[in-house]
Amino acid sequence: MQTEARIKAINCQHFINGQFVDSKNQKTFENINPATEEVLGTVAEGGKEEVGYAVAAARRALKGPWKNTTLQERSKILRRIGDLILERQEELAHLESLDTGKPFSLANSIDIPRAAYNFHFYADYITSVGTEAYQQDQQALHYAYRRPVGVVGIIKPWNLPLLLLTWKLAPCLGMGNTAVIKPAEWTPMTATVLMEICKEAGVPDGVVNLVHGFGPNSAGGAISEHPDIDAISFIGEPGTGSAIMKSSADSLKKLSYELGGKNPNIIFADADLDEVIETTIKSSFVNQGEVCLCGSRIYVERPIYSEFVSRFAERVKALKVGHPLDDDTNVGALVSKEHYDRVMGYVEIAKNDGGTIVTGGKRPEGLEKGYYLEPTIITDLSRNSRCVREEIFGPVVTVTPFDMEEEVVMQANDTHYGLSATIWTSNLKRAHRVSHQIEAGIIWVNTWFLRDLRTPFGGMKNSGIGRTGGMHSIDFYSELSNITIKL
Ligand code: NAD
Ligand code: 6OD
Questions:
Q1: Mean pLDDT of 237-259
Q2: Alpha-carbon distance 255 to 484, whole Å?
Q3: Strand, coil or helix: what is 241?
Q4: What residues make up the domain containing 408?
Q5: Mutate to test the pocket of ligand 2, among 106, 162, 164 (most ligand atoms within 8 A of CB)
Q6: Which of 240, 248, 283, 338 is the best mutation target for the ligand 1 pocket, counting ligand atoms within 8 Å of the beta carbon and taking the most?
Q7: Which EC numbers does the record give (predicted)?
Q8: Quick check: is 151 in a domain?
């Protein structure tokens, strides 16, 4: 039974200096519902001019009331933002589902509660942050003084819109910075509501600013180039990261990057296969496979390869692809036509490369409108196929057998990416040994996407620069001055 949207989509304006405003030239673009291909509403299209206003407001706020807030006051505001997100959970989950095509049930159980928790976590964490101090015999006392980095540009992707925005914004505000945010053009709604929430929670005008728009030659490009932005926190594709690095080079901005992944899911024959299959369904297809951490390259030790493929395929065929607002939907719609065509292109590449489509690979029957794709398992591809090498970012996984531990480590590392990996084994020594050899920033053993926000999070190689989480985010969003007092 299809649930009717109980929450109406919103038209999205910029939020600059505490006010919702249109673009100076009144330009807007359409926001499309990926589940129905209908227009949800309009979005103000910002550019250099709007980013200029937003940066000026953020700069004033940095030196104004925000500068004088105490840690306790900022902690209270972060807590209140988290509380208000939870008060508006159902509305936010609806808007997130309409924008992205993800199941409402997923947005309501994961995205929005985690968005609130990002604020609650940092509300507590910032109150325990200290600095270093060293006594140098009787000569001197050295201590580090922490201050905000300044105005931060936050540029976001579309897959987990509110979860990822709050993951950056909470420590950014907590450390006393101000922000100019650009959400992904395909998913503008929850970021817009978050601005209302920030205002209600007591964030002073100008501290958070939001400019909608596109990438290069638009709001994203304007943020990267703006000389008065001190740092950029970016989540998105490596190519975009590289473009931002080039355009921010003249002003030497501090950069934090969380980029793509082509993550190996390595299954040894001694693993608990029931648990493996249960979790691998999620690590392959949750959020339509549009999670940077998805284990899209599955490697299975040969003795259990056939059993894994047949049991996994059986379970995957039972997943319900459907309208995101249906209660029983497991897999919703991909985010846009452009992305859908791109993912479908990879299915064609797999066929041309001699791959076997074990299940999926096509639009589900009965869903003629919307960007739906059956969860897809592909076998028999060589490691040179673009399907095995490139991030697909959709409900498509490849499965490959292996014989030796050294061989699978080599294959797992045979990529420009290095975000995450999952290793399934009941052999503790092997778990440590393989984990130490895999070139990835996040390694899960016998689990996937189990998060503790104090831990370092991020990727190596083309998957990112720096780490976030706990103290790592605090370090990015602050500058240290070492002060030496001669005794
Ligand atoms: P994208 O790089 O295309 O876009 C991200 C953002 O950058 C958007 O807001 C876009 O408008 C903006 N942008 C594009 N070009 C720009 C430019 N030249 N200058 C400034 N801004 C620009 O990424 P996407 O398609 O929105 O997201 C998917 C990608 O994000 C995948 O690669 C995925 O793996 C990655 N991702 C990584 C993580 C992580 O934690 N590592 C999390 C989520 C998504
Ligand atoms: O859990 C997180 O903190 C995080 N940044 C998740 C990213 C998921 C990528 O799609």
A1: 98
A2: 28
A3: helix
A4: 264-445
A5: 164
A6: 240
A7: 1.2.1.60
A8: yes
- pLDDT (0 to 100) of residue 7: 85
Using CB atoms within 10 A of its CB, is residue 19 exposed (0-12), middle (13-18) or buried (19+)?
A: middle
Tens digits of residue pLDDT in 388-423: 999 999 999 999 999 999 999 999 999 999 999 999
Residue 9 included in any domain: no
Atom number, ligand 2, closest to the C-alpha of residue 287: 10
Q: Which atom of ligand 2 is nearest to the CA of 449?
A: 1
Residue-wise pLDDT tens digits, 187-211: 999 999 999 999 999 999 999 999 9
Mean residue pLDDT of the chain comes to: 97
DSSP class of residue 36 equals T
Phi, psi of 10 (to 5 degrees): -115, 155
Structure tokens at 21: 């405003």
CA 93 to CA 8: how far, in whole Å? 12
Quick check: CB of 224 below 6 Å from ligand 1? yes
From ligand 2's centre to the CA of 403, what distance in Å? 32
Both 253 and 273 in one domain: the answer is no
